Amino acid sequence: MVYFQISPVGFDCGIDKNNCQRYPDFCKECVKEQFQKLGLNIDHNLKFTIIDSEEKRIEMFKDLIWQKFLNVLNIKHILLMTKDSGLPIIDYPISGAGVNTELLLGFIQANITFSETGNTITGNGNIGTKYPFYEFQYETFNILLKNKEFIRICLVLDHKASESLKILVSEFLNDYEARYLDKLERLVNIGMLDFEDTIDFIIDTFNIKLVFPMTLTHTFLPDTLEAIKRNPIQKAIIDFAKQLLSSKQFFFIINLIDEVQKIVQIDSNIILYEISQLLEQNYIFPTTIEIAEDKILRFHESEATRLANNELISPIIANDDAINDLKEKAKYMSEEEVKKAIAAYIKKAETAEKALIYTEALREYEKALFLATGFDFIEEIGRISFLVLELDKRIKEMDLDYAINAAEKAEKRKDYINAINYYKQGLKILKEVQEFNGNESRIKKFEKKIINLQKHL
């Protein structure tokens, strides 16, 4: 039998408190009765809190996620090691704090030895418990250490650990040893094993994704945009995220909070709550530095190849008289004139983009890119290339939405030939943007849809 402890669990009793004769004196008993009917055992470790309004529930969630965020901001490095030998099994840096883990492991082992032999240790050893916390200073960092049956965890922190972080550490150790018991027993018996596949569990437990690089979805449906516009904080978040993405391939939540707070002048925990809502709906989503840098590298390599072959990103202005005139003018322009022209083209493109005139916007961006590449303005090339890429994706997404809608309507009319044709158009677009969006599951869905429709012919 496996016993699951679920905490915290929310339960809506479905009864208005104004119409309940048992509220509030018998709420606990009533909830226990309801849980027992569902086969849930709540006799032990029950923490019962009445939250009698939606506003209070949201306030509680705001405080909870803010504390999670503060905790993960505090963590600079996570080390897992065997308890008895101190052999490292996970070495996971969260920031570039530059911790020398070999020296740290030796320092930890020495402190643990002193503590267990009864000597004084800096910090709180919590001597009354079976698996105490150890807290001490190492260089400029605060160290939080805790043992379990097989492993020991070490958190390298900026500041002393909060009580909520300590609770999380205790829960993590319990869950980790239960989840990977077989692995740990083999580790003790036969030596080192690969524990890299357990890192995702560490990331989820400590909410490390909150400090990952973030990016925005490339698709905002009309209903979604309307809902965001009705929420001024979410609208500000999306607007500032787009601004941050105009110069880089990703942004960080802490920077986004700072930018939004400069304008809206409200508490950071409220902004973070709205960001968390957008994260849950996958309008904002985390990536990793490695993935982001790899995408930048691949994009720039691809761009360099196009430029070396004197190609433009799209054929829209390849035979345009304006670009031919620009080629001639560029031969006699100074660097200062080129920079002013680039700024003017970008401004025109942004104006066209806001007016949803995407073809004209792309034309202006590519004029700016042509000048930037001709004069080898590296920073401008990167920034404009990103803007062109994003706009190109947006155009493809609109084409994709049109193809899907047209295919679904044709399918409902049992016009299977046109349905297949439109699905194939959508499939082609998905494959073109697959490298950046990861559309494998949608591609498979479209291919399956086409096969099923062909059976009707």
What topology emerges from the helices and strands here?
Blueprint: H1 27-37, H2 54-74, E1 75-82, E2 88-93, H3 101-116, E3 133-138, E4 141-147, E5 151-157, H4 163-179, H5 181-190, H6 199-205, E6 214-216, H7 222-229, H8 232-245, H9 253-264, H10 268-280, E7 284-286, H11 289-308, H12 321-330, H13 335-354, H14 358-374, H15 378-412, H16 416-437, H17 440-454
Antiparallel strand pairs: 1-2, 1-5, 3-4, 4-5, 6-7
Helix pairs in contact: 2-10, 8-9, 9-10, 13-14, 14-15, 15-16, 16-17
Please explain how this structure is put together.
The protein has 457 residues and is an alpha+beta fold. The protein contains 17 helices and seven strands. Strand 1 and strand 2 (88-93) form a beta hairpin. Helix 2 packs across helix 10 (268-280). The two termini are 53 Å apart. Mean pLDDT is 76; it is low at 119-128 and 303-319.
Task: List the keywords.
single chain, 457 residues, alpha+beta, Beta-Lactamase, 5-stranded antiparallel sheet, two-stranded antiparallel sheet, 17 helices, 59% helix, globular
